[in-house]
Amino acid sequence: MRTIMAFGKSHRSQRPVLGRRVMGTLFGYRRGHVHLAFQDEPKSAPAFLIELATPTSVLVREMASGLVRIALETEKKAEKKGFKLLEEPLWRTYCNGKKCGFAMKRDCGGEEWKVLKALEAISMGAGVLPASDDGVGAEGELMYMRAKFERVAGSKDSEAFYMMNPDGSGGPELSIYLLRV
């Protein structure tokens, strides 16, 4: 019986899944665009990775001013019935109510893995990683923010991610909403 169970598990999809509490990472080079990744665990592959059209410097300014709400909207079309919300490829982006262009789903390539591996031991915080000497990251220093998020699935067409404050006080400083409209 155990052999059958192991055989059955090996044929399951290797697509990463997300639980109720996830690791969220925003990162980008100072003169580049922001990437957003959600992982179930810091060492797992991202279940959701997108590149926002928002420049990193603009998002840093918004975050310095207080609460930040990022809304990602995608089209609801009849021919896309099989897509799960986190698999949608193209998103309209709004930051604190202002339209910020489009975001695109990305595969986790070598450069993204390098960043996520460098941040693996960090459970919460924000900072800057210096530019590397090997020519990778020619855009300058890499800025990042990493925290635990609570994931709330409203329906098959809506999910929200709320950054969790470690001391439990106050509301979330950063909220990310995914909507299929």
UniProtKB/TrEMBL annotation:
One of its GO terms (biological process) is hydrotropism. This is Protein MIZU-KUSSEI 1. It comes from Malus baccata. The lineage of its organism: Eukaryota, Viridiplantae, Streptophyta, Embryophyta, Tracheophyta.
